[in-house]
Amino acid sequence: MESMKAFLLRGLNFVATHHYIKALQKSMVSVIGISFIAGILMIVQNPPLTHLTENAFTEGWVTFATDNAGLLALGIQLTLGMIGVYTLVAFILTLAHHYQLNPFHPLVSGLIAYLLLSVGFTWDASGLALDLALLGYSGVFVAFFLGILTVEFHRFSIFVRSHFQPKTEFLDRLAQPIEASLATLILIALAFACRYALSLNGILLPDLVLNFLTPLLQSSDTLWFVLTVIVLSKLLWFIGMDGNSLILLSLMPMMVVFNAENLLAYQNDKALPYIFATGFLFFELGVLPLVTAILLFSKNKSHRSSAKLGLLPSIFNFPETMIAGLPLTFNGAYLIPFVLSSVLSLSGAYAAMTLYWVNKPLFAFSPALPGFLGAFLSTVDWKAIVLWFGLYVVCTLIYWPFIRQLNKKITKVEIVLEEAPVTTVVE
Predict the structure, then answer these.
(1) By the 8 A CB rule, do 287 and 314 touch?
(2) Helix or strand holding residue 241 (H, E)
(3) What is the pLDDT of residues 177-207, one digit of tens each?
(4) Integer Cα distance of 317 and 285 in angstroms
(5) Cα 139 vs. chain centroid, distance in angstroms?
(6) What are phi and psi of 127, to 5 degrees?
(7) pLDDT tens, 62-94?
(8) Confidence (pLDDT) at 353
(9) b/e string for 21-30 if b means 16 or more Cβ within 10 A?
(10) Beta bridge partners of residue 130, listed in sequence order
(11) How big is the CA angle at 297 (ends 292 and 301), to the nearest 5 degrees?
(12) What is the mean pLDDT of the chain?
């Protein structure tokens, strides 16, 4: 049993710390700001003008949006419309840094291959017309595949050259640019061949991948999927693994796609289709309810000291202080409320958004924002703050009966210690 447990922990740790997973997480965090800028441009482009908000300010806003419609559309195309390109660049840079490779040639070959596989075109007497529609969120998943293929192929080419080391320094200097150019040429040739094969069926690679993943993406926006993901994340924290990195951050590409879909729906005055976008995780309150409950109800001095140290980090969604300091790892006394509070908070937020009591997430922000602020900014809805604090109170109260039970145990220990006979040593 112990060997199986050790094997499982080693396997999970391997996945959590794998350089592909780390590169994926870092690259998606890097492009969150681009998604936010696109959202701001869309709001400027679509003023909230109704009979209730009609005034001099909104009328001036409408005039500005109308006069600068082309410029705003260009800004949106260069941010949200190119998010696949930025994802590829961030991923290649991160992975190349891990391998200590010069990222120039992987970037060049990766970008050319990505554009060859993703850009549509028409050719007629008037010239070449390009279709850049698939450079946005549709190409995010293709970007990761191409990033891995590009960096690993360049790494392999360096490995091959190292086993056929030229005998002179001159030949070595000559071989380096030839090796890099040859690797780039091979990758571009493969991209051309793939593009030609797909063009016979009238489809591009991002379309093919997205069509394949669409059923999975749609099923991933259900309450059961969300709860399964969060329960797995909490159980990983319980056994000492970083559940956020292993589960939640690994789903970031999917959530970024959901964010992009919601932004496009907002731009076209349609209902936002997805709930499980990045901003939804602000309603997962982490260990903040636990910290609050310990400070309010616990009589355990050690637990209260840990809660005081963990209060500020938990406000900014860093649970590590409490996970390791309390600790929560392999602590059965807190396992049930630890899981139950997150299930309840996300279920409540999901229900509120499904019933249109609160807006669905629109913007992507850093998860380090305080929860109530992130919930408001990501949904642009003041009711999200009310919902967040309501869930916070309920989740804090979930811990009360469990802490009360621990208090009783502490009281019993104190009574036993008080009734124990005091022995004195006479010299």
Answers:
(1) yes
(2) none
(3) 666 677 888 889 999 999 999 888 888 888 8
(4) 8
(5) 16
(6) 120, -160
(7) 888 888 888 988 998 888 888 889 999 999 999
(8) 94
(9) bbbbbbbbbb
(10) 121
(11) 90
(12) 82
Query: How many CB atoms neighbour CB 216 within 10 A?
Result: 10
Whether 15 contacts 61, CB under 8 Å: no
* Cβ atoms < 10 Å from Cβ of 1: 5
Q: How far apart are CA 109 and CA 107, in angstroms?
A: 6
- CA separation, residue 335 to residues 127, 293, 402 (Å): 65, 14, 10
410's tokens = 């502490």
Residue 142: CA atoms inside 13 Å, Cβ hemisphere, count? Answer: 29
Residues 186, 153 contacting (CB under 8 angstroms): yes
Which residue in 106, 65, 100, 62 sits closest to 88, CA to CA? 106
Spatial contact of 157 and 182, defined as CB atoms under 8 Å apart: yes
Residue with tokens 């959530």: 255
Contact 115, 43 (CB under 8 A): no
The answer to whether 106 touches 154, Cβ cutoff 8 Å, is: yes
* Bridge partners (DSSP) listed for residue 131: 120
Token pair recorded at residue 66 = 């109308």
Nearest Cα neighbor of 334 from 395, 246, 270, 264 is: 395
User: From CA 125, how far away is CA 10, in angstroms rounded?
Assistant: 61
Under a CB-based contact definition with an 8 Å cutoff, are residues 297 and 383 in contact? no
Cβ(372)–Cβ(358) below 8 Å = no
**Sign (positive/negative) of CA torsion 234, 235, 241, 243?**
negative
Read off the pTM.
Answer: 0.76
Q: How many Å separate Cα 37 from the centre of its chain?
A: 17
The pLDDT score that the predictor gives to residue 14 is: 64
Nearest of 277, 304, 301 to residue 290 by alpha carbon: 304
Q: Is the peptide bond before 327 cis (omega within 30 degrees of 0)?
A: yes
Residue 146 CB partners (closer than 8 Å, separation 6+): 88, 110, 113, 114, 117
Amino acid type, 198: L
Amino acid at 321: T
H-assigned helices in 18-134: 19-45, 56-67, 69-79, 83-99, 104-118
DSSP class of 273: -
Q: How confident is the model at residue 140 (pLDDT cuts 50, 70, 90)?
A: confident
Residue type at position 413 = V
C-alpha R_g of the chain = 27
